[in-house]
Amino acid sequence: MNRFYCAVFAGVLALAAVPAMAEEPPLEIVGMGSFHVGGRLAEITGQPVREITFTPGGTPAKVDPNGRYAVEQMYVQWFRPRAQRGRVPLLLWHGGGLSGVTYETTPDGREGWLNWFLRRGWTVYNSDAVERGRSGWAPPEVWSAPAIHVPIGNPFERFRIGQGEGSYSDDPAKRRVLPGSQFPVEAYDQFPRQLSPRWTTTDEPTIAAYVALVDKVCPCVIVFHSQAGQFGFKVAQARPDKVLALVAVEPAGFGDPAKVDVLKSIPSLMIYGDFIEQDSRWPTIRRNGVAFAERIRAAGGSVDVVDLPAAGIRGNSHMLMMDRNSGDVAQLIQTWLQRKGLWQ
Amino acid sequence: MNRFYCAVFAGVLALAAVPAMAEEPPLEIVGMGSFHVGGRLAEITGQPVREITFTPGGTPAKVDPNGRYAVEQMYVQWFRPRAQRGRVPLLLWHGGGLSGVTYETTPDGREGWLNWFLRRGWTVYNSDAVERGRSGWAPPEVWSAPAIHVPIGNPFERFRIGQGEGSYSDDPAKRRVLPGSQFPVEAYDQFPRQLSPRWTTTDEPTIAAYVALVDKVCPCVIVFHSQAGQFGFKVAQARPDKVLALVAVEPAGFGDPAKVDVLKSIPSLMIYGDFIEQDSRWPTIRRNGVAFAERIRAAGGSVDVVDLPAAGIRGNSHMLMMDRNSGDVAQLIQTWLQRKGLWQ
């Protein structure tokens, strides 16, 4: 069993040994707001003026589609708790095809990581990456590629909730869930309602908007998931002095390998859930992540790679923040951040 | 001057005379979450399987576009204040081409109506209507009409910020703002970043999702803006026992005129801002609203129509909740709700 061979470090098992607080600390939000950051103006010309009746029975309005459009901005919502214990704000960056909703209420109605970290006294910024949710998306004249929509069964098979390809059925009774899964499968059908159409051509503007966010609100800690693996590491490479710690939750992408030395001053934590080995894609994704971590270490940096099962936390899907034991995973992150001196 | 002839009622001027509180009551949120409500599953068949690399350098995934899609659901975020003074929750429904961001921080960084009503002890549900923001949008195989995007100058000219058609310029110094406008024009460029692509074919599913929301969280008070004029009145007509009051803020659409008797037990307030008469479209829109109010009254119902200038509140654009005097308008709504016995 060398499954976790390069991942288990001294102290990692101890992280999980910190018990979850017996009683949840109170939620007390005393400041809240939102803004859009980043983006650019894109010009459209040569189109005919249209007359549009926006509301049935309403008064037609002329719409001249020529002009400048606000595109590639990013929506960010922030919350400030009464008792501030995080030394810097904590930023939550979601994965592909999703939005900041990822960190809100779980599909089965429990509080998500947004509330969890607010209860521990972190000021939290929760964003919708460029193109998704409240960030809006650009006209086809600006983004010519079509958006990708995925059917409701796709995340079930791809996110290690079901037993891979073919495991999803429209009939809930026939879905082949991974034995021991902590995903709240009885509420699975609520999850795909959070899906956001996506593009595969918007990584650069997404990174630019995240850099603009970091310039605006950091120094900070960034917790990022899946597709945001590349965003978290690349943005930290662009603004290493602004990022005090990186928490990569099942990252599916990584930073620039030629610039790993820039990351050596930023302590990083990489977390992987369960069922990796039996999946068709995740062994490769995890191997790429561990290889990136090793490059950072070779450059003199510090990365802790935690395979949750090895730390005694079992059954996690790719959507760890929605799993029944999401609080245990959050506590592991919290304990790690405390040990890095980022919480008081 | 019969400009406000049918709109000024005894008591209306008195509403504005209630002074805004000298000091803002504290913001203290002790509960917060989100969910998606309503929607349906739509099936797509006969499409080829595609292989997509979602993340550069990542591991390709097979995406079978055939299957069922979650469409036409609605995203709702809720907040519960410590001291609950609203007798029922207050629902905020935004206008066309926008999202719940409408009620959050204003373009110039002040607190929006969401925080304003939370500070007065209302539990608030702020939603993104079907197709917009965190509600997602359906694949072209399901919604065949193209989305409508508008350039950044469109709301400037259409929402009574500038002096109508041709008043917008990409050069801020050359924009012709309505004299006396309360819109924070120096921050105008932040506003179009909130725009959401829209369809003109989704009114029925939007109403269905709002009805599902009302079934889930009401009895309640609904504050609705612009395009949501039709949604507010039609949903109240569908669920009259669940709606204790309606606040129509510059409604651009209305309910079913054949069913106004259903609304007679629901006290309603209609609010219009400034510069209506000099606009090319708003005199008609307002006239339609007043005519709908008169139908409700003729059926025995109660509707107060307030033209803000007649109530001493001047300079309001269509985006009243973003104007510099947005607190005065909110206070007028609050005072009206208090008089209806809905706040304690």
What is the structural class of chain A?
Answer: alpha/beta
Rg of chain A computed from alpha carbons, rounded to a whole number of angstroms? 21 Å
Low-confidence stretches of chain A: 1-14
Most residues in contact: chain pair = A-B, 88 and 88 residues
Give the oligomeric state. homodimer
The number of domains of chain A: 1
The proportion of strand residues of chain A reads: 15-25%
The level of helicity of chain A is 10-25%
* Contiguous helical run count of chain A: 7
Order of helices and strands of chain A: HEEEEEHEHHEHEEHEH
Terminal residue distance of chain A: 39 Å
Strand order of the largest sheet of chain A: 1-4-6-5-7-8-9-10
Biggest β-sheet strands, sense, barrel of chain A: 8 strands, mixed
Globally, the shape of chain A reads globular
CATH class of chain A: Alpha Beta
- The CATH architecture category of chain A equals 3-Layer(aba) Sandwich
Signal peptide (chains A, B): 1-22
InterPro entries (chains A, B): AB_hydrolase_fold, Carboxylesterase_BioH
Keywords (chains A, B): Signal
Organism (chains A, B): Phreatobacter oligotrophus
